[in-house]
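INFO batch 0412 | record 1 of 1 | parsing
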Amino acid sequence: MAFMTRRTLIGAGLSVAALGAVGYGLWPRMDGYREEVERQRRLLGNDPDLKELVRMATLAANGHNTQPWKFRLAEDSVTILPDLTRRTEIVDPDDHHLFVSLGCAAENLVIAAAAQGRAADIAIGTGAEAQIEIALSPSAAAQGPLYEAIPFRQSTRSVYDGQSVSTEDLRLLENAAREDGVNLMLFTERSDLDAILDFVIAGNSAQVDDPAFVQELEDWIRFSPFRAVETGDGLFAACSGNPVVPDFIGSRLFRSFFTKDAENEKYRSHVDSSAGIAVFVGDRDDPAHWIRVGRSFERFSLQATALGIRNAHLNMPVEVLSVRPAFADWLGIPGARPNLVIRFGRAPALPMSLRRPVEAVLV
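INFO prediction complete | emitting tokens
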């Protein structure tokens, strides 16, 4: 979302006097939100149970923060299933992003389990409903920077500092992302980033022109901290660098400031300030490989977090069917499906997003 300035507020038809009339007592406060973030985003304590491993899994990246997962617990195993009631059928009609999200959650759980002395054996079921079976067994504890980064990983949707990332850091990111059946392409040359930006702008323009896409996006935005805490999901305004506003104002503002020109200009500044862009490509276009892409990306994102490198999604070129083939051709993989487009660079952290209670995702 574009940043809401004072000019934006007034342009939306809300005068300074009208805003003042709302009263400071009604303007959202962040205190309760921060407390909930601190409660959720912490490392494991001593001798954690499976529910605690699920909590760590739910801190994974996922589209629109819909948290489209369910967890079934047994004595020494966890099964991760898709929650199709939380699918985003406009931006993700074939549930590609949903299964990528499941892969991200699985990777967090595997890393957290290893840190507590539990080895994980993963099997991806490909029956009527793809699911991830994780069998746990005793092993030596293996804590490390990826585990310690889990509570701090975020999608940082802001302008970065424009500085390059060192060759050594790029090597660490590549190594972290290694996964059978997944290829990572890293682009750091400005000419390549400019070319990718053209695909981002084409995809973003098509999406903003689609009323169904805009409505689905708005449905998942949480304008106030109260609403964000109440639902425990969605795209909280502050997490995108936007000021928080009362819910009864938020929708009106969104319809005023969410325009194609504003969004395209935002993404230009995001790409221009990034150190590079990573593109993830699965060997096959099926849920099993989408899950593998999610596991690869989650490690990439955790390694970036450990290095003080931010990242955020620019998935428009892979989401818009009219843009995707040309983007694949430019990547040199005609006929294949690129899965994720991720920019990276350095910037201050933004507020962290929330998650639903563990009990809400258990079956």
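INFO post-check: The mean pLDDT is 92.
INFO record closed
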